[in-house]
């Protein structure tokens, strides 16, 4: 049967959760939220709430043994099966993938074109990124195509030969790269400054905003609400220990986030120039600040840049396959489509959405630069027609992000929690968890999913919806 081994399931689930957000969003948010207080809250929330949410999705998938929609139908005790609509999570994966793969394409471009010619000053660093966004649109298209092609190829190979085999290789490589970068960073003069920034806790730094951002970071870093965990668990071993599996996903994810923060802030604090306000924000951190910082190290900087971007590519690919797999499994199980065809057609839809995302990123970026969008002057160019379909004040990326991160993901995760906490009988749940939760552990977990987790998800939903 095409199922994960016990180790393969853990690594695949870990690969789905360790993505670009762990490596650049976590350091950015830690920087914005004051460091230690944000980090401590994130650690506690991830270990308590995050692990409980993962166990919930794992149980639904393992006991349902079907695609996301089918799992809810199988477990729903009602004859009319109204909870099948909780399977809407499968829509979120392709939508997120449409802009996630675009950003991964930028990383691929930087890995190939920029790592060997690092910018020597802030002007050149900004110019390199601006050129990609404004004049090298087709490089973005090729990057998107390459990332989706690799993703579709791996998913089409199946669970054992594709997804598990890839994660068995890339996850250890990812950790090896980060350990190497951390060792190098540890010998830099600014390393202890990074340590103090991330781990010095000040009680006065704790406030509602820091708590909510730590909560949001925890939620969005665990692949919740897109059907990935349910899908992977559906093809896991019957006697998989989901408590251990959840901890093996949460704890290494925390470690990668902290290591990424230490590496980035070591180089950031050690840079002898002023990065300015543009240098410390999300995407700019990776594509403008870090290439400039790495250039200070000469030939070693090129190696550091290649290693860092390589780690981002590995983390990104393991995440993209997890975003594609739920919809592919749905088509293969419910529509009788082969894996190859399902992977191809879903990727085609994602590619088209990705073109809108590319246009959205580029037009928004160029509008901020107050530079004309030269790429759209040719009426024979697809981007000219995309330009006529979209308004700059409502770019596609922001709608895709809004729909997925602020609506589909929180509501899908909430549906899973309510379904398991209130629809499935407690005695049935005890039977489901008998092999890995003792009575005390079950009581704690059951209390969390019934009373704490719904409030947490609602808080994230409201916070992000009105942000």
Automatic annotation (TrEMBL):
CDD domains hit by this protein: SLC6sbd_Tyt1-Like (cd10336)
Q: Which UniProt keywords apply?
A: Membrane, Transmembrane, Transmembrane helix, Transport
According to its UniProt record, where is this protein located? Membrane
Q: How does it sit in the membrane?
A: Multi-pass membrane protein
Q: GO CC terms for this protein?
A: membrane
Q: Which residues cross the membrane?
A: 35-56, 85-112, 137-159, 166-187, 214-235, 247-271, 299-324, 344-362, 382-400, 407-424, 444-466
Q: What's a Pfam family in this record?
A: SNF
The principal localisation class reads membrane
InterPro entries assigned to the protein according to its UniProt record, in alphabetical order: Na/ntran_symport (IPR000175), SNS_sf (IPR037272), YocR/YhdH-like (IPR047218)
- In Swiss-Prot or TrEMBL terms, this protein is called Transporter
